[in-house]
């Protein structure tokens, strides 16, 4: 139940109802909607990491904390709602309806909003008294927040939008198209973590994030993916299996992974598959490698790429991850840096073309889809 703003009237109303007093349902209702509080969508710990000049050292110096971390979900945006009516009746509950596009309206019970993208939002409040519904006038607000766009999906950990970062030449990595997460179903696999969407989480994935495609990077052998044959999100969600081994930490140079990596990038080259989410078990190693290479491809800088990688330490992933895990000479960070090209984007493209034999036209199509 979301926190309400009418503590004393609620106590009086509940007391009256408990004594059998007939409830007075209002005929007229007026709303006062304060501006949405956009102070931060990150928790205090997340902001602490984001403000570090040397985030890698900060992670290592606080290793004991991160090993015990139960997860840091983003702070909600809060809409203060005040209602006046002709009877003094207390609403049963509020719903906030909000949207950027008429084709994608979303409702949440209470006054806390998660997962807003940058841009213009329209919203209205629905107040419920018994069998009556009252609707406020529509208001608009402009959202501008810092990256990463940390995502709250009930039951799922380590979820965030890859987009939103400023990239070269004043362009932007588009938000709302591609998400990285931990797994969507719990399994008995020894390395599994507690991550699977609740019914509310599935509604977020389907109705708010509009996920069409679920790319699963977990191995199909050994029970790592739980033997699934369809997406845990819904029967209508497209499941693309791209099983990859992570025993060799550089998934790109592991010949066993080549076909799956090619399938991953060909899936991203089809606009009809978006919005999409991709994940392994924790959403760190295989997911982190593909997120790093994809971010480099579209033009993110190395500091932002590393911050996005280290941000997974703020989720309950059982063991921490370090910069050294991916930046050693044999790993993909150095592989991209050492490839031909004058920009990191050109280097990432050449690395993927050379190491994984991905067609240049495929990579160019992905850039066209994801860069605004």
What would your notes on this structure say?
With 372 residues, the protein is α+β, with helices and mostly antiparallel strands. The protein contains twelve helices and 15 strands. The protein has helices at residues 7-18, 44-50, 55-61, 63-67, 199-208, 258-268, 286-298, 302-310, 324-327, 332-337, 344-356, 360-370, and strands at 29-33, 77-78, 81-85, 93-99, 105-109, 112-113, 119-129, 132-135, 139-143, 149-150, 160-161, 178-181, 213-216, 238-241, 276-279. Strands 10-11-12-15-13-14 form a six-stranded mixed β-sheet, with helices on one face. Strands 4, 5, 7, 8 and 9 form a five-stranded antiparallel β-sheet that branches. It is elongated. The two termini are 38 Å apart.
The CATH homology group name of the largest domain: Protein tyrosine phosphatase superfamily
Question: Which series of helices and strands comes N to C?
Answer: HEHHHEEEEEEEEEEEHEEHEHHHHHH
Number of helices: 12
**Coarse structural class:** alpha+beta
Q: Mind telling me the C-alpha Rg?
A: 23 Å
Point out poorly predicted stretches: 1-20
Output the strand order for the largest sheet.
10-11-12-15-13-14
What topology emerges from the helices and strands here?
Elements: H1 7-18, E1 29-33, H2 44-50, H3 55-61, H4 63-67, E2 77-78, E3 81-85, E4 93-99, E5 105-109, E6 112-113, E7 119-129, E8 132-135, E9 139-143, E10 149-150, E11 160-161, E12 178-181, H5 199-208, E13 213-216, E14 238-241, H6 258-268, E15 276-279, H7 286-298, H8 302-310, H9 324-327, H10 332-337, H11 344-356, H12 360-370
Parallel strand pairs: 12-15, 13-14, 13-15
Antiparallel strand pairs: 1-3, 2-6, 4-5, 4-7, 7-8, 7-9, 10-11, 11-12
Helix pairs in contact: 7-8, 7-11
């Amino acid at each position: 139940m979301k926190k309400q703003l009418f503590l004393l009237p609620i106590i009086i109303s509940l007391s009256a109802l408990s004594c059998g007093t007939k409830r007075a349902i209002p005929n007229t209702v007026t709303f006062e909607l304060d501006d949405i509080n956009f102070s931060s969508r990150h928790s205090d710990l997340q902001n602490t990491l984001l403000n570090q000049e040397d985030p890698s050292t900060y992670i290592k110096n606080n290793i004991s904390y991160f090993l015990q971390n139960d997860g840091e979900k983003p702070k909600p945006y809060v809409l203060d709602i005040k209602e006046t009516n002709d009877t003094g009746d207390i609403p049963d509950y509020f719903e906030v309806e909000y949207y950027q596009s008429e084709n994608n309206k979303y409702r949440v019970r209470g006054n806390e909003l998660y997962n807003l993208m940058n841009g213009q939002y329209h919203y209205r409040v629905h107040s419920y008294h018994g069998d009556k519904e009252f609707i406020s006038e529509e208001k608009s607000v402009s959202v501008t927040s810092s990256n990463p766009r940390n995502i709250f999906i009930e039951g799922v950990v380590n979820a965030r939008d890859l987009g939103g970062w400023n990239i070269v030449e004043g362009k932007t990595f588009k938000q709302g198209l591609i998400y990285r997460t931990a797994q969507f179903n719990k399994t008995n696999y020894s390395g599994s973590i507690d991550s699977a969407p609740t019914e509310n989480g599935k509604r977020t994935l389907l109705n708010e994030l509009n996920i069409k495609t679920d790319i699963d990077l977990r191995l199909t052998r050994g029970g790592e993916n739980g033997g699934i044959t369809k997406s845990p999100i819904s029967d209508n969600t497209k499941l693309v299996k791209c099983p990859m081994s992570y025993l060799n930490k550089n998934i790109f140079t592991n010949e066993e992974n080549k076909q799956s990596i090619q399938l991953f990038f060909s899936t991203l080259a089809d606009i009809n598959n978006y919005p999409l989410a991709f994940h392994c078990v924790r959403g760190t190693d295989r997911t982190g490698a593909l997120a790093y290479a994809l971010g480099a491809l579209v033009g993110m800088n190395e500091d932002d790429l590393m911050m996005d990688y280290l941000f997974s330490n703020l989720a309950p992933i059982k063991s921490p991850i370090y910069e050294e895990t991916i930046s050693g000479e044999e790993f993909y960070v150095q592989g991209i840096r050492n490839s031909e090209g004058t920009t990191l984007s050109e280097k990432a493209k050449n690395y993927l073309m050379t190491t994984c034999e991905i067609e240049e036209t495929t990579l160019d199509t992905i850039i066209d889809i994801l860069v605004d």
